Amino acid sequence: MDSAIKTGSKTLENNVTSSEYVLEIEHLKKSFDDKQVLKDINLKLKKGENLVVLGKSGHGKSVLIKCIVGLLTPDEGTLKVFNKEITNLNEDELTELRRRIGFLFQNSALYDSMSVRENLEFPLQRQDEPLSEEELTPLIEEVLEAVGLLDAIDKMPSDLSGGMRKRIGLARTLILKPEIMLYDEPTTGLDPITSNEISLLILDIQKKYNTSSIIITHDMACAKVTNDRIMVLKEGEYIAEGSYEELENSEDEFVRSFFNSTN
């Protein structure tokens, strides 16, 4: 990892106790047949922090997220979420853990046959104790207001723009009050103005709900707005971390290539 940038990261770790991390990964490896996708992943996410992950397609970003939520099992290394080793959890414990983690998919993953209200009711009704209509309505209205779309409550997904669908997807995730948010290319396919609105919304969510977030993106404008820290993934390994300004001026050509594309 870039030594100058690594020093900056080390300062953060020295000032943070283990209990202040919601996610701790050490020497994580994952292969599929003879292809090693994650070679040696080391990552820590602090409570309330927005961590942006940069990396080319096929370099392991999605595989890492699936490991974090227990959909894939690492071959080696440790992966602790809320100080619990993922590989030691049974299915019930994994289910409980996943309720504390929100995931915003690239395509928002809304159910087209359901209204906005019904899309937001769906995750709540899957809980052990389903809520009544009187209990559901204020929860739905709260998250819709948080994403600025309270007036869309009775619309169908087909009536919404791409940016609005992203917001509704985010509202559906927030309704379970997650402590960790995983954003997978949150601004993909959006125009620059709408992309900036989504980036600012990610910041608002961080402040209002005190979420800890991993933001996977190729959108450098999004990275610049949302990050507290940035890590760069190359062929299954993190090769640099630091602030936007530090990485923009990195001596590593691969790291600089992300930032050069914005010039």
From TrEMBL:
InterPro entries in UniProt: AAA+_ATPase, ABC_transporter-like_ATP-bd, ABC_transporter-like_CS, P-loop_NTPase
Keywords: ATP-binding, Nucleotide-binding, Transport
Species whose genome carries this gene: Solitalea longa
SUPFAM superfamilies named in the record: P-loop containing nucleoside triphosphate hydrolases
Domain ABC transporter intervals: 23-260
GO-annotated molecular function: ATP binding; ATP hydrolysis activity
Pfam families: ABC_tran
Name of this chain's protein: ABC transporter ATP-binding protein
Lineage, top ranks: Bacteria, Pseudomonadati, Bacteroidota, Sphingobacteriia, Sphingobacteriales
